[in-house]
Fold this sequence. Notes:
It is built from 15 helices and 14 strands. With 505 residues, it is α+β, with helices and mostly antiparallel strands. The chain has a seven-stranded antiparallel sheet with strand order 7-3-12-13-14-11-10. It has a three-stranded antiparallel sheet with strand order 4-5-6, with no helix packed on it. Helix 2 runs antiparallel to helix 3.
Amino acid sequence: xxxxxxxxxxxxxxxxxxxxxxxxxxxxxxxxxxxxxxxxxxxxxxxxxxxxxxxxxxxxxxxxxxxxxxxxxxxxxxxxxxxxxxxxxxxxxxxxxxxxxxxxxxxxxxxxxxxxxxxxxxxxxxxxxxxxxxxxxxxxxxxxxxxxxxxxxxxxxxxxxxxxxxxxxxxxxxxxxxxxxxxxxxxxxxxxxxxxxxxxxxxxxxxxxxxxxxxxxxxxxxxxxxxxxxxxxxxxxxxxxxxxxxxxxxxxxxxxxxxxxxxxxxxxxxxxxxxxxxxxxxxxxxxxxxxxxxxxxxxxxxxxxxxxxxxxxxxxxxxxxxxxxxxxxxxxxxxxxxxxxxxxxxxxxxxxxxxxxxxxxxxxxxxxxxxxxxxxxxxxxxxxxxxxxxxxxxxxxxxxxxxxxxxxxxxxxxxxxxxxxxxxxxxxxxxxxxxxxxxxxxxxxxxxxxxxxxxxxxxxxxxxxxxxxxxxxxxxxxxxxxxxxxxxxxxxxxxxxxxxxxxxx
Length: 505
């Protein structure tokens, strides 16, 4: 139930996912503080804690969430937004289309492989869908155009100033050229990350051994006897999938990046293997020792001549080449973006300025409430009947399949104290206009009395551009109703002692 709806429902509304976890923190019995594991440790007793509410919420009720959002870029220029859309997001979608299809093919064929790749698949799919949604939002509201029009306003304000201030005198022509000049390197860099960074076990090991991510073992006083050895993780990946992933990423990278950024081994692929990436990959896996169990890589010629190590060296070289170009461009771009932000602040000195998120604790307050999806009102909560309807479609949508007990629980005639007193419904998930972003998942959602009413776990499809532009009309925070959490802990988990301890009222 914690991932009910999977990628089908991810970033979407309506939602019925029961996304929660329960942890107990243990402490030193004498100090009530941190301690190494001991059978004598006791549950930690905080001085303050959040009361849990069974009263629920109504439309327009006050709601707030506290958490640690990652980062936002809401003062980014139109050029930066265009780059995010056309380079970062578009490349992520294109490359992950291929990667996800390969993983799914093997996961569908084997339960063992499904378990091995479940986390990797979900992780890749999450921001694959996010990138698609963000681009859709950027285009649907004409965000690049809006930003460009606002930048014209800033330029006019700058022109009207009698005293020139270097800290705000942004050069839009220079900014445009800086983004344009770095585009080839930035495209290559994004494809490099999507293609080679931890995409296959072979690529991962090839790069790990070169960047010092593998522990050096052996006598400290004799380098000739020191070696690196990968831990046996053969139960965590599938060889056939790994080979197909490696070949597919090599091929896609070559097709998408400027020739200047092709590592040297591509010449070998063309000259010795006729451009056949599958044949090259088979040869690579056969000749390299990277995937051999218990193999020791000593600091000698045999290691440095391993084709897998040589591949990694070439990959690192070309990435370093991109990095040099991008680092110089980034510094110049940030300098102009900083001026742009300062110009906005000075031009609108009498207006409030909302700060970007930067991984620190943030409180966002607002209201419970839905939004207009075209001519259709989204509503502000989902109820048990809606999840039952989705369960009935399990033959069409695999991610709506649940255990039979869940059908039984969700079709109950009476949900007791977990049923909302106002609507008479068993409410599952709800919407607020609280401002959240990546990193907020799991953040507590409180009512006006500081009582826990839910847990934030997602945003809606229409809010996916909120990292660069927060639209209060459309952006919504999706939370799981704490009563849904308690209901499952009670009726399915039979966690009587925990429920007594939580003491929801």
